[in-house]
Design goal:
Length: 667
């Protein structure tokens, strides 16, 4: 800004449009002026008209200098009358104020010049009128633009005070008195104008402050509202998939279940648990696992469409809620839709994954729509679905309720020490298929329940795993089994099943080896049977435990090979001392060429890796002959011997070894 404009700005004193307060002040000045100035010009015109009437046109000869002033007043009056209707931008207001200043300057100088001229004329009768109207015009105009101090001072300084000064220097003592008094009044008015302006500025300033404060508060409130909504969304959303989380899902479920009684509609609840997700996470890293979950989330959303709700309620567990489903077949169709949504391979970072999931469904209907109950039912259905293998689907039925009840009874009994102690062991011989020599006994848990009758290990072991009692149970069984094994000939090993869950608990190997050491059994006589599932759950912990077993001298056998993934990578990454072929591999090879080839392939694979094989579930002579022909070393099955009790096992494994001659295997 040059010094000239700076000087001009200071002279005009209109304000500035840079700051918030400056702009507000300008707007208020303009608003006040647009109300006051028309009155000001009206006063100016009334004054001139009054003067004209008072002198009965005596100033006719002086019309010429007055006329431009009258015209100026009229033009400005019209301008301001128009301006009242609109609010200008602060920059335009500044221009308007500057114009006002100069018009006021022109008017005051003009009026003053004319008045002084009149007073210098030798017409004393008009002098009083000139003084009266001049003073009135000065005071009136000053108040007319009181909202704009710089302009308001002009009529006092350039019209009123020059007239008063002129009176003071008049020879007439009456005029001198009038001049002094007028000067004092005008000075007082100048002072009042300044006070008024300060008050006006302060008022606007505080009003701007309040408005800004109010705006800030409003903005803060808006931000808080947005934040609150965001926080609620975050609290209800699974950050990975963007789906509803467990919390939000349960809330929706409760709300929709409550609405059922009003709408009379039906609702299907589905719980999906991905098959074999953990190995993907472990093998390819969490980023890949996350990408899979994201994609699953997206696909489930598309299955449900807008009316359904999809949520991620656990690591690899999803839940879906479908409205307007009333029948079991409807629920099954949903399960099928979910399954087929996952069928398309998942391509992540150029790698293809095949993902499937088990789906448990239940229906919520009017009169039977308790959300907690529905969750339990969907869980039961999921449990059943998992039993039927990968991509299983099950809809809850009343029979499941019975199964549930049985499960609860088993669970409760397992928690009771006395009841758990009823779980005992039987021993199934594992023999050399060529010589019939007894190589080992596999210890198998048996439970004859007071109320439920015989409960198979395939039923209670998974429950014990789920309720975290497997460690305790397994340790006790190992202690019993080792106690029995000490009675056998030194050449007969004990084969003991280690649960997948137990194997994935850090420190399990320590505890089991301590039992062995306490019993004083040579570790070389014990072999642990582990299944692939253990390696799928937590490969690293399982590996640590298994390495500890091997370091202690016990053997590790991979059980049920061929039942699940039959992953060659595990054979490469883990060191095993033997493989137990799953019963399914030898179930039908004698009547199918393909199965026979498969069995031969697996046996060749084991031979290539230098791993001795044990064939399970040998039930027929054909199976036995075939296995012998294919070079399978050891075997186990009802044909050779069913599991026997401890006493019978001890009799078989006594110092005199029972030899099974090739020809009398079935005997
Ligand atoms: P597994 O380790 O594969 O045990 C072999 C299963 O096959 C046993 O079933 C056995 O009774 C059965 N079996 C033996 N010979 C034949 C045959 O010729 N034909 C058929 N169809 N089956 C035969 P079991 O005793 O019901 O045990 C089932 C599974 O439960 C076992 O499979 C094992 O995984 C688990 N298990 C049993 N006892 C224990 C235990 O003490 N601890 C742990 N962790 N798991 C156990
Ligand atoms: Mg086994
Ligand atoms: Mg087995």
């Amino acid at each position: 800004m040059s010094w000239k404009t700076e000087w001009l700005d200071r002279l005009v004193g209109a304000g500035e449009a840079r700051s918030e307060a400056g702009r507000a002040l300008l707007e208020e000045r303009y608003r006040a002026l647009s109300r006051q100035i028309p009155l000001l010009y009206a006063i100016g015109l009334a004054n001139i008209a009054g003067l004209y009437l008072a002198t009965k046109g005596a100033f006719g000869s002086f019309y010429n200098p007055i006329t431009p002033l009258v015209l100026l007043l009229i033009v400005r009056l019209v301008h301001w009358l128009r301006a009242r209707r609109e609010m200008l931008a602060p920059e335009r207001i500044l221009i308007e104020l500057r114009k006002t200043f100069f018009y006021a300057l022109a008017f005051c100088v003009g009026f003053c010049g004319w008045a002084l001229y009149q007073l210098s004329e030798d017409n004393p009768a008009n002098h009083d009128l000139v003084i009266l109207f001049g003073s009135l015009a000065a005071v009136g105009c000053a108040y007319g633009v009181s909202a704009y101090l710089a302009a308001a001072r002009l009529p006092i300084l350039l019209l009123g005070l020059p007239l008063a000064t002129r009176l003071i220097f008049s020879p007439d003592p009456g005029h001198i008195g009038m001049g002094v008094s007028l000067s004092l009044i005008l000075l007082l008015i100048l002072h009042l104008l300044r006070i008024h302006d300060e008050g006006f500025s302060r008022l606007i300033e505080s009003r701007t402050g309040i408005a800004a404060e109010r705006e800030r508060a409003r903005r803060a409130e808006r931000v808080a509202k947005v934040e609150k909504a965001k926080a609620k969304r975050t609290a209800d959303t699974d950050p990975l998939t963007g789906l509803a989380n467990r919390r939000a899902f349960l809330r929706h479920l409760a709300r929709r279940a409550a609405a059922l009684s009003r709408s009379g509609d039906g609702l299907a609840l589905a719980i999906l648990d991905l098959d074999g997700f953990k190995p993907i996470n472990d093998t390819f890293g969490h980023a890949t696992g996350d990408a899979v979950l994201e994609e699953v989330g997206a696909r489930l959303t598309s299955v449900g469409g807008r009316s359904a709700l999809a949520a991620r309620i656990g690591g690899d567990e999803f839940a879906l809620l479908f409205p307007r489903i009333r029948t079991v077949s409807g629920a099954k169709a949903i399960g099928a839709a979910v399954r087929s949504a996952l069928e398309e391979p998942f391509v992540i970072s150029g790698r293809e994954f095949r993902i499937s999931g088990c789906c448990g469904l239940t229906l919520l209907r009017v009169g039977d729509c308790d959300p907690a109950q529905a969750l339990i039912r969907a869980d039961s259905a999921l449990y059943q679905a998992k039993h039927s293998g990968r991509a299983g689907i099950a809809v809850f039925s009343e029979e499941m309720d019975a199964l549930n009840l049985r499960r609860v009874q088993i669970e409760d009994s397992l928690r009771l020490k006395a009841s758990q102690d009823a779980i005992g062991l039987v021993f199934q011989p594992i023999r050399d298929l060529a010589t019939g020599e007894l190589r080992a006994f596999e210890a198998l848990a048996r439970w004859n329940h007071d109320l439920l009758g015989p409960v198979a290990p395939g039923e209670f072991i998974p429950i014990a795993e789920q309720i975290n009692l497997i460690g305790e149970l397994s340790e006790r069984l190992l202690r019993d089994a080792v106690g029995e094994a000490r009675r056998w000939a030194g050449s007969v090993r004990l084969s003991f099943n280690v649960s997948a869950v137990q194997l994935c608990v850090a420190g399990s190997a320590d505890r089991l080896l301590t039992i062995l050491a306490e019993a004083g059994l040579d570790p070389g006589r014990l072999q642990f049977e582990v299944t692939e599932t253990a390696l799928l759950v937590d490969f690293e912990t399982a590996r640590t435990n298994l390495q500890q077993f091997r370091a202690a001298g016990t053997r590790i056998v991979l059980d049920d090979f061929g039942a699940g993934h039959a992953s060659i990578s595990y054979l490469r990454e883990m060191q095993f001392d033997g493989i137990k072929l799953d019963g399914s591999l030898i179930a039908s090879p004698h009547d199918s060429m393909r199965s026979r080839r498969l069995l031969k392939g697996v046996l060749d694979l084991c031979a290539a890796m230098g791993l001795p094989c044990v064939a399970e579930h040998i039930e027929t002579r054909e199976q036995l002959e075939l296995l012998r022909k294919l070079g399978c070393r050891d075997g186990q099955g009802y044909l050779l011997s069913p599991p026997v009790d401890a006493q019978a096992a001890a009799a078989m494994a006594g110092p005199r070894l029972t030899l099974l001659r090739a020809g009398s295997a079935a005997g």
